[in-house]
Each structure stands twice: as structure tokens, then as C-alpha cells.
Specification:
The chain is 68% helix and 6% strand. The protein has 159 residues and is mainly α.
């Protein structure tokens, strides 16, 4: 590899170009925040089936944001000179984005914990052996038929 392949490409930016890049970053981040907040809300309501369509859009927005961030980082010095006010807006938005990411992560972690508990409960019930059905014996006491079987499993599909 030569140095041209390693060194980032610095653009010859005008003030308008810098402001336009900041606007693209702001809009993409804003849309990603909105999507994360919607996903978090659905996770908290345990509507996991409804978040599937979000994955494609979230991936596309993340790729776009990564592209814009790479351009920004390659031209950081010029960006600071040409668009200082826009950078302040982006810094404020970054805090909002971080809060949104943290809330989404917490909701995903909680959903994972619930799923793991459900699976563990199902596995424990399936593995648990019970004696046969309980019946009254001739002495009027509860007994069983002595047959070993797996425990019945009831699954509540309304999560």
C-alpha cells in the first residue's frame, strides 16, 4: 500500500459544502434517533414482531451516517473553520443521540433477559419429571399411578 491509499481524502470545501455536510449529518442522525425511539417504545410494549421492518432502515441510516462521519473526520479542520454554528448544533444532537442509544440498549437488554427467563422456565418444565396423575387411593389419600412422564408445558403466547 502506498500513502495515497492510507491517507484520508481531504476535500476542497466551501462554506456551503461544510454547511451542507452538517445538515446531512443532522438530518440523518435525527431520523436515526426517531427510529431508535420508535423501536425502544415497541420493545417496552413487548411488540417485538413490529420492529423487524426497522432493521433495514436502521442499517441504511447507519451506513449513511458512517459515510457522512468519514467525510466530516477527513475535513475536520475545515469544518471547524467553515461551519462553527452548525457544529454546535451537531454536538447538542450528539447528546440526544447518545440518550436514545442508551435507552434502546436498555430496552433490548431487558427484552433479552425476559426471553432468557422464558426459555429457562420452558426448559426446566420440560426436563422436570412428574409421577403419573394424582388419584385418590383406596384409603382416601392422594396418590399417583406411579407412571413417570414429562411435565406438561403451558406456553403463554401473549407476551
Amino acid at each position: 500500500m502506498n500513502n495515497a491509499q492510507i491517507a484520508p481524502e481531504v476535500e476542497n470545501m466551501s462554506k456551503h459544502d461544510a454547511q451542507d455536510l452538517c445538515e446531512q449529518l443532522y438530518n440523518t442522525t435525527h431520523e436515526l434517533i426517531s427510529l431508535l425511539d420508535q423501536e425502544t417504545d415497541l420493545l417496552r410494549k413487548a411488540k417485538t414482531q413490529e420492529i423487524t421492518p426497522f432493521h433495514v432502515r436502521k442499517g441504511a441510516l447507519t451506513a449513511t451516517l458512517s459515510h457522512h462521519m468519514a467525510r466530516f473526520q477527513n475535513n475536520a479542520d475545515k469544518m471547524r473553520q467553515l461551519a462553527p454554528d452548525e457544529l454546535k448544533n451537531l454536538q447538542n444532537q450528539k447528546k440526544e443521540f447518545q440518550r436514545s442509544i442508551e435507552a434502546n440498549h436498555a430496552a433490548l437488554t431487558a427484552m433479552q433477559a425476559v426471553s432468557e427467563r422464558i426459555l429457562q422456565t420452558v426448559a426446566n418444565k420440560a426436563a422436570k419429571k412428574q409421577n403419573g396423575p394424582e388419584v385418590y387411593n383406596a384409603g382416601g389419600h392422594v396418590g399417583n399411578a406411579g407412571v413417570q412422564r414429562s411435565a406438561a408445558i403451558n406456553i403463554d403466547t401473549n407476551l
